[in-house]
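@channel sequence for tomorrow's demo:
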Amino acid sequence: MNTNPSLIALSPSALKTALISAGVAEKAAPMRVRQLWNWLYVHGARDFAAMTNLAKDFREEMSARFTLKRPEVVTEQISTDGTRKWLLRGEGGQEFETVFIPEPGRGTLCVSSQVGCTLNCRFCHTGTQRLVRNLVPAEIVGQLMVARDALGDWPSTGARPEKVDTGFSSGRATIKNPSNRRITNVVMMGMGEPLYNFENVKAALAIVADGDGLALSKRRITLSTAGVVPMIERAGHEIGSALAISLHAVRDEVRDVLVPLNKKYPLKELLAACRAYPGLSNARRITFEYVMLKGVNDSLAEAKELVRAIAGIPAKINLIPFNPWPGAPYECSPWERIEKFAEIVNRAGYASPVRTPRGRDIMAACGQLKSESVKARASERMALHPAG
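structure tokens (generated this afternoon):
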């Protein structure tokens, strides 16, 4: 087992420090940082041997001291609609999921920030799994790197695989339109609450948004929160991504049940934080996510209250048909009701697209992600990581 430290997701300054500690001359370190950065995030190099413009002895020294290890792919599944879900294994053996959703002209990667979740949102399958731990930057960035590996989507090559493993059998399936498989957007909407893992998410997204790195515009990165009010303004200043709010109700008594975090940060405080989000404008709108639950939050009166509640906030509303999971306590609203709800919101001047369920057949749709990882007992953690 390779226990060398990974260079994945180190900041440029941390990467420079690591290289100097490995014997690279301080004067040469900035150049080496630029070279390695390019190989990691433009070429997608998975080992030092691939870095052919670097001296062989330098590559061998790096390989002896460091690793470029991504999260391990445990399984890959591909939905009938083209959605892909990867179950990944990180340090310590805990598992988490990431999902790629292809659409004409764009592709969205849904990234996890934690193994499990503390929020216990009633409609969310992830919420039935207790929090195991926060993901570290290498595991967050690694989700995008794993997806780019699988999709042949590294900027330096533009390569597209003609064949992909379906994940269901040993057979292979042809991608009919591989140009639609590029990752153009990243959404922090996978497992966990990103604002409860703020520093690691911030560090990871800095690399995702770096123009010389993974190079996704901050306008194409969306951080979704259930409403950790004290961290919202800080996220705007320090991360600067687009913001999405898991709203799901417009009355505190309903949201207290659906999103228990509302008891700590009720709607009035949450919406005030949204109004104060740095850089908010018609060109940089907040997305309010609203899952449609039959007989719970889908009345036409609630549609009108939603419009009233967000008045003055540059926003759009994503209406999400509830995606069922085993033992779920809710049903999806009838399609006719969803359309009438959307009509009221549209008439008020807000875009209210109804999100088409994707990947339901592989449990990859919104609110369906979950892994089997659980917290290790103290004795197990000691066996894995003995003192000293």
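heads up for whoever presents: The chain has two domains: 12-65, 72-362.
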